[in-house]
Structures are given as structure tokens and as C-alpha cells.
Amino acid sequence: MLVAVAPAAHAQRHSERDSERHTPPWERRSSATFAIGGAGLYTGVRDSDVGRVRDGYGFDVHAAVGVSAFALAGGYQRTVQSLRDTDTDVTLQGPYVEPRLALASGGNFTPYLTGRVAFLRQRVSGDVVSVSNATRTSVGGGLGMLVALGPAVHLDLTAQYTRFDVRQDTRHGDGALLRAGMVFGFDRWGR
């Protein structure tokens, strides 16, 4: 009798583990997880009026809370670009909100879809140019990947398309934002 029950119990545990492993992240129930992170940014901005903005670099820092496959991050970003043919820098800095949705994954990788809304203050310094200080609203989206390096330590890679406008006038533009950094927390987010 005991011999017949043991394989059945083992098979039941094994099938429960398999069903847990194959449940899509958006159907899982979990408690909230928290994370903090920072990253280096590479940004390419194409402004419809200026057209002379070079690609630039910067950083962002953020905190996030995740439940099941959904996470919401909020943070601060700062990038500096220069204008071609001048000694002028354009700094874009300000807060952002970034919702994320984890996709089904396996192993140590968690791919995710991301959106981003940022309220960026543009500051121009250097030569006198016809670009005024302005506030830009930026909206974008893209794809990211968390790579587990250890318990609650992740490499965070993101590529996003961004569309922005300038509130004081009719200028608008678009660009790309590439991010590479570290996230501490989110031990089981999306998995």
C-alpha cells in the first residue's frame, strides 16, 4: 500500500510544480515586491525646429513596486546633449513615471513591456542660440529585460521610443532612449 501511494504523491507534487512553472505572469497572485535602481542613459533626440541636437548621455534613478506581472516605477532622469556648430549644451531633466508589464519567460530573464511619461525641464547653456528654456512632456514605450545576477540583483536593459512636445510653443520631436543599469529588489517579479 505504501509503495503505491508514494509514486502517486510524488507525481502530484511534480504536476503542481509544473503547473506553477507554466502559469503566465499576469495570472499569478503574489505579494508586492519593491526595488530601487539606477542606470546610464543614451538618448537620441530629433527636434522638429532645432534639428541640430546631438545624441547625449545621462542617468536615471528610480524606485518601483511590483505585484504579479505589473510594476510601477517613478524616478528622476537627466541627460545632456549639445547643439552642432555651437558651444551650447541642452540639459533635459525631471521626474518620470514608468509602468511595466512582465512577459512570460524562462530561466534568469524577465522581458517586460514599458511605458514612460516624463515632465522634463529643458535648460540651455553656452552660446546665445534661439532655443528658449521650456518644459517638455515626453511619452514613450519600449521593451526591457531584467537579467538575474543573484538574489534580488538584476541587470536592467531597456530600449524605448519617445515622443515629446514643448509646452511654450509648437515644437515637437521624437527620439530613442537606451538604458543599462542595475536593479536591487524584485527577487521574483514576473516569474
Features:
Porin; 1 helix; mainly beta; 191 residues; single chain
* CATH architecture designation: Beta Barrel
Order of helices and strands: HEEEEEEEE
Strand order, largest beta sheet: 1-2-3-4-5-6-7-8
Tally of strands:
8
> Spans with pLDDT under 50 lasting ≥5 residues?
none
DSSP helical segment count: 1
Range of helix content: 10-25%
- Total domains: 1
Q: Kindly provide the radius of gyration, computed on alpha-carbon positions and rounded to a whole number of angstroms.
A: 22 Å
Largest sheet: 8 strands, antiparallel, barrel
Mean pLDDT: 80
* End-to-end C-alpha gap: 38 Å
Which structural class fits the helix and strand makeup?
mainly beta
What is the class in the CATH system?
Answer: Mainly Beta
Q: What is the global morphology?
A: elongated
Which fold name is given in CATH as the topology?
Porin
* Portion in strands: over 45%
Organism: Roseisolibacter agri
InterPro entries: OMP/PagP_B-barrel
Protein name: Outer membrane protein beta-barrel domain-containing protein
Topology:
Elements: H1 2-21, E1 33-47, E2 56-67, E3 70-82, E4 88-102, E5 109-126, E6 134-150, E7 153-166, E8 172-185
Region (Disordered): 1-29
Organism: Roseisolibacter agri
Biased composition (Basic and acidic residues): 13-29
Description:
The chain has one helix at residues 2-21; strands at residues 33-47, 56-67, 70-82, 88-102, 109-126, 134-150, 153-166, 172-185. With 191 residues, the chain is mainly beta. 25% of the residues are buried. The protein is built from 1 helix and 8 strands, in the order αββββββββ. The chain has an 8-stranded antiparallel β-barrel. The protein is elongated, with a radius of gyration of 22 Å. The chain has a single domain, classed as Porin (Beta Barrel). The mean pLDDT is 80. It comes from Roseisolibacter agri. Residues 1-29 are annotated as: Disordered.
